[in-house]
Predict the structure.
Amino acid sequence: MLSRVSNSLYWMSRNIERAENTARLISVRLIGSIEHKENHWDELISIIGAHDDFEQRYDRYDAKSVMDYMSFSSHNPNSILNCVKLAREDARAIREIIPQELWEMINAFYWEVKQYKHEDWTVETIDEFYQMIIRQSALFQGMVEATLSFDEAYLFIKMAKFIERAEKTSRILNIYYYRSEDPEHNDPSLYRHWFAVLQSVSGHEAYLKKHHPFITGERVIEFLLFDEAFPRSINYCLEQVYSVFQELENGKIEHYSEDLHELIAKMRHNFKTMSVIDVLTEDIHRFLQEFQSNCFQLGRLINKTYYLGEVGV
Amino acid sequence: MFKTYETESFFDEMLQETGRPRSHYQTLYDRLSALPEDELKVRHEAAQQNFLRQGITFTVYNDTQGTERTIPFDFVPNIIPKDEWEKLEKGLIQRVKALNLFLDDVYNGQQILKDGLIPRELVVTCNHFYPQVTKIKVPRRNHIFMAGIDLVKDDNGEFRVLEDNLRNPSGLSYVFQNRYVMRHIFPDFFQDYEVQSLENQFSHIHDALSSIAPNGVSNPNIVLLTPGIYNSAYFDHSFIAQQLGIELVEGRDLLVRDRIVYMKTTRGLKRVDVIYRRIDDDFLDPLEFRPDSMLGVSGLIDAYRAGNVTISNGIGNGVADDKAIYHYVPSMIRYYLGEEPIIKNVETYFLRDEEQRKYVLENLDKLVVKQTDGSGGYNLLIGPHASEEEREAYRVQIEKNPGNYIAQPMIKLSRLPVFRGEKFAGCHIDVRAFIFNGEHPHVFPGGLTRVALKEGSVVVNSSQGGGGKDTWVMTE
């Protein structure tokens, strides 16, 4: 397969996943803000790491500004609009590779986002928009599973999705862990806080099934880092990345794929040998930051191994 | 709905002067007349939406917004009876054969110039003549893998060639999409018609491409080279590559090492044998042509010269579809094939010739004037429709550089009804026929019918707001 094609598949997939994650984050925050005054919209900007750019364009961290920046801003390369636009451009560049149905789905998705009257939205109406993003992303995943041959193209889409997910889960945990350390928290507000964290990755229901309604920071962290079955836990994502690598390489390690294999092995090792207690007693921030820098490295090595274009994070 | 329809003084494909439909249109005419107007409107709208959803859009150049629009589609098909088509096929094959021989001659012995049939000056001063590619051995001496020849019918209902497109003719994908949308939204129109199907055409096209592989390559790696997604014909490129099952590549996907072309894959380099290129000559190789080209591949022409790769359509084909050379195509047919041309040209005046120039300048209000190397319907003067100022401005241009222009009488292009909401109106059409040239030349059944949607307009190019219609070649 052409390297440019793999690159487009990779970024199409990451951008759809990114748009969905952003929609989910905002939607949870939006619902939370209805009942409670403590909003901290700036946290969302922290998660995407864009304070400088944001402050150049807006004078305060309120709901409207943050949502506008994260959803529609053409200046923000990771705004939902930009992600969907980029995904569609990549899909268009490879539309002879992907099934027609999948292309039409992405094309229709793009027009729906682009034609959304974003000048007119209100806090009352906007959530419908985020729900649409989440649904379209699910439709994308479903179509990929149902219409694409399980060959190299599929594997690049899958790899990109799980790297993006793992990375986003770690960013969410990192920022929200800071907030949980805030001394002004009381028990009910901490409970709410960790519940919202779970919702941000759509993990509250899976968590409740496992742990019943006993929500503590330690357990949520354990769930999102180490759970073996939840599709957005970092451990699960990492295992998926590993299995894609195995499939791409037919279980072999060649000279050219050695570095990539080594990095994935190292990342898995951290998750296999550590427990949540280790992570919390050591330094969770350092642990998560190291993971993020490994993710960045992972992108670079995939680029190098398969001659993709400019793959970064 | 046809009660108020006027054929005026034009040849109408559907209706005779008596107002009665021609026999091959009778069934469709009855069907259209029986349908409620509202339903036609709904279906017409559904057809346009279908194009947008499928992303079959055209990027409008010179527009910073990157506007995309669909090519408007009209549901009244252009129906061509079997016998009429068969004659056309013969004429098209004859024409492409002669044009190919001309190209081979011009880039090799130039016998036709030595024999004085075509003025040498006309060829060597042509912008599309590339001395860089003379004497290169082209597999099967085939310079034209795909030709797109534009045909019109005059007021006697006789087909004539308007233009030969031998470089990168586009529009094939629209032929398929028009048929696709037609079948989905107007399935009932096909009842009682036996129409040639398009589905099996790609095997002919693939065969033609395989047959021009460099010597000794039996299962060639064929790619389609596109400028990329911002090119207005990108949909065409992507559709053809997909249907042929070949890779769609951009210049940056290719590289040349030791005079061999490779494509960059996830598993390293893979050799390329045949390139169906949709990039213009000037941009193909920055080492040979425009040094600022970002679309091409350095060293490509050298690999071509070494016979390690086929580039098709051939480089420098523009010398044969130049509007000044057009005048000589009937002579070429007689010269190379010893046959009489089956399809006629449109009469053409040369402005470099003093006498003809004098006539043209005196009759600008009756003629169409074109630039010899222009395309896409830009910079035309349509004398009868132009204002006095426009004609004057053109006159100044012509006098400055008369060799750059030709003139043709205003042909009364044939018309077909187009649905305009409440009623049908007659609009001018042309047909772009596609000819594929491999071991045996093959004419694609039907081609692309383009229609000038602006009232009274005769310009059908999509860049000028033209639309499309399905084209039916009858099987009996």
Q: What stands out?
A: Chain A has 15 helices and no strands. The interface with chain B takes residues 1-4, 6, 89, 92-93, 95-97, 100, 103-104, 107-108, 111, 152, 306-308 of chain A (CB under 8 Å). Residues 3-35 of chain A form the longest helix (33 residues). The mean pLDDT of chain A is 92.
